[in-house]
Amino acid sequence: MLASASGDETVKLWRVADGQRLDTLSQPQGDVYTVLFTPDGSRVIAAGRDKRIHVWQLASLTEPTINPQLHARFAHESPITALALSHDGSQLISSAEDASLSVWTLPSLEHAATLATQPDMLSSLAAWKEPCFLAGRMDGSLEVFQAGGAVGEAATSVAQLEDVPPAELLTGAPIAHAEAEPNDTPADAENVELPVSITGSMNREGDADCFRFTAAAGQVLLLDVDAARSKSQLDSRLELLHANGEPVPRVRLQAVRDSWFTFRGKDSTQSGDFRLHNWREMELDEYLYAGGEVSRLWLYPRGPDSGFLVYPGFGQRHTFFGTTAVTHALGEPAWIVKPLPPGAAAEANGLPVFDIPYENDDDPQGRLGRDSQLIVEIPADGAYVVRLRDTRGFGSASRPDDFRYTLTIRSPVPAFSVAVGGKNPQVSPGSGRELTFTATRLEGFEGAIEINVENLPAGFTFHGPVVIEEGQLRAFGVLSAAADAADPSDEADKAVRVVATAVAPDETAAPAAVELGTLGNLQLGPAAKLTVAITETGSTAPVAEARQSVPHFTIHPGETLTARVVAERHDFGGRISFGTEDSGRNLPYGVFVDNIGLNGLMIVEGQTEREFFITASPVARPGRRLFHLRANDDGGQCSLPVVIEVLP
After folding, report:
1. Alpha-carbon 236 to chain mean position
2. Is the peptide bond before 412 cis (omega within 30 degrees of 0)?
3. Most exposed of 98, 175, 249, 484 (fewest Cβ within 10 Å)?
4. How far apart are CA 330 and CA 138, in angstroms?
5. Going from the N-terminus, what domains does the chain have, and what CATH number goes with each?
6. Model confidence over 517-533: pLDDT tens digits?
7. Which residues lie closer than 8 Å to 9 by C-beta, 6 or more apart?
């Protein structure tokens, strides 16, 4: 294979044997100056005037195919002139017109070091004897240097967030404390002993209440305001300060890619259709900073008229690092950011750095309305101050109860609850109905939750257990009825148990189980007008036979597989729709039904089957999961679940 880089902003791949063009890689946004292959032939790397390093996966070295882009990193503040790879392919060196020189690790393309600025622009780089490289400069000079930094001092690698020491739990009920003025400033803060429950009010406009306490390094505390929930007019804002009044830093956010909002702005609640410039350079689970708010990318745009979904992937959007959701205007700047420890050295990449302190306006999950809530990790032994005020500066001397509050400071108690959707199901004989399980995560609980349905009547099957994945909020399961199932009695309905269990990360710890009640009135529905099944591509099995087997699909992150959906039309001749971005039900996070176009996954009139595609993004985690398809017709008939396994 031959790769050519061009001023037409593309890289083209060619089969040397006959000169056939195999692919055009069109993601760069400027002249491409340099291109190379990794030694193992699995990647192609290019860079140029858009100041980014682009990496594509080579799906085939001999046949025309689509080669997906894996990375697009903003790398230098000026156009990139040269690239070189170490002989083993583990390190990449890049140089730019401003004579800067950087080292990157592969295959992740993470920045490892910045070498000393060169006396002149480099026109050529080449690997030499390990671990050395040769650099040719425009002034005619040639120099040997080590990737580790023989030429000048290499910058320290970007640090990762450190593990927090185990929290020192506060025991006993919170101590009641009534707020007393003056306490407007950190210097006048009232001393309180933890755990504490403070009652008070904003008794004039511009009022602020400060409370001082001592805490140990690594201690985890919950700061919770109950005001709006109790019909107070207070719109609270919480801040954690050092004893001298300086904000306590929470995280430093290093911008790694720049962007802005396109097509339309967003209000402060929407979680869907985030249309962003340069979205193809972005990856799921990356943090997006805009206007002081940090959100997180949950699902790629799924067609020509769509944008990202951000966490949690449905409903009201969540924010991160204690930030508050705000409105974003069309054209407003936004950045993909990488979290660093407070005060960590940031990369000199020409993009901004944002320091986020411990503060909160509205609860990041949107559960508490205008009330504030913070979970803080104490950075060092010492005295700290909590400052509480109205975010608008409101208060009242004549009616202080209108702005009353209760501020509680204690150890968090991680917990969860799960709501069951699809109760009182009517399940057609020989078919299935979907159940939805939606978690509410409380006080920092992020672990996986396993759902089981037990004691079902004869002829009914719950295809599980299903798992709400770590950090996610929803999972879907299928309840099916055998062709000869009978309508259950009231006593049989009452015996059903839905149980949610926390999957403990420590296998020696006893998982916490939560009883979710019954499924209500379980009924046998009318005969299905259509039934559907998922089979492997190439299978010719009819629906009835396909529903007797459980295909097992395997996929690696970055791959796409094909599957087949077949339908048996009993009394339904119309189009069968399986949805758009939600067409793959209960797929693992980061795995999705691909190539859905504008109309989603469907079987058109007069047909009974079609092939569809499933793609695993690079963030998909190894594991096994059941997934199914739900027809949006005939009341939502479901296929029986099949197995998909994400391999390392």
Report:
1. 28
2. no
3. 484
4. 43
5. 2-146 (2.130.10.10), 175-248+361-410 (2.60.120.380), 250-357 (no CATH), 415-524 (2.60.40.10), 530-646 (2.60.40.2410)
6. 999 999 999 999 999 99
7. 26, 28, 29, 30, 31, 32
Average pLDDT over residues 548-552: 83
Question: What are residue 50's phi and psi, to 5 degrees?
Answer: -80, 5
- CA 325, chain centre distance (Å): 16
**In this structure, what are the phi and psi dihedrals at residue 403, rounded to the nearest 5 degrees?**
-125, 40
The secondary element (H helix, E strand) that includes residue 618 is: none
DSSP bridge partners of 220: 377
Determine the pLDDT at residue 287: 98
Q: Which of 383, 386, 379 is nearest to 237 (CA)?
A: 386
Q: Are 386 and 236 in contact (CB under 8 A)?
A: no
pLDDT the model gives residue 163: 36
Integer CA distances (angstroms), 156 to 96, 149, 160, 448, in order: 20, 11, 12, 35
Instruction: Tell me how far apart the alpha carbons of residues 493 and 490 are, in angstroms, rounded to a whole number.
Output: 5
pLDDT tens by residue, 24-76: 999 999 999 999 999 989 999 999 999 999 999 998 999 998 899 999 999 99
| Three-state secondary-structure class, residue 626 | strand
CA distance 113 to 384: 37
pLDDT band at 364; cut points 50, 70, 90: very high
Q: Is the pLDDT of residue 165 over 50?
A: no
Give, in degrees to the nearest 5, the angle at Cα 374 between 369 and 376: 170
Q: Is the entire prediction scored with pTM above 0.90? A: no
Asked if residue 492 has pLDDT above 70, the reply is yes
Local structure of 327: helix, strand or coil: coil
Is a pLDDT exceeding 60 seen at residue 635? yes
**What one-character DSSP code corresponds to residue 521?**
S
Task: Please write the tens of the pLDDT for every residue from 173-204.
Answer: 899 999 999 999 999 999 999 999 999 999 99
Contact between residue 153 and residue 168 where contact means Cβ atoms under 8 Å apart: no
Q: How many CB atoms lie within 10 A of CB 484?
A: 9
Rounded mean pLDDT of the chain?
Answer: 90
Positive or negative: CA dihedral 119, 122, 124, 126: positive
Residue that the structure tokens 């909590």 belong to = 386
Structure tokens at 326: 């705000």
Q: Which residues of 523-532 are buried (b: 16+ CB within 10 A; e: fewer)?
A: ebbeebbbbb
Residue with tokens 């409380």: 442
Q: Does residue 324 contact residue 364 with C-beta atoms inside 8 Å?
A: yes
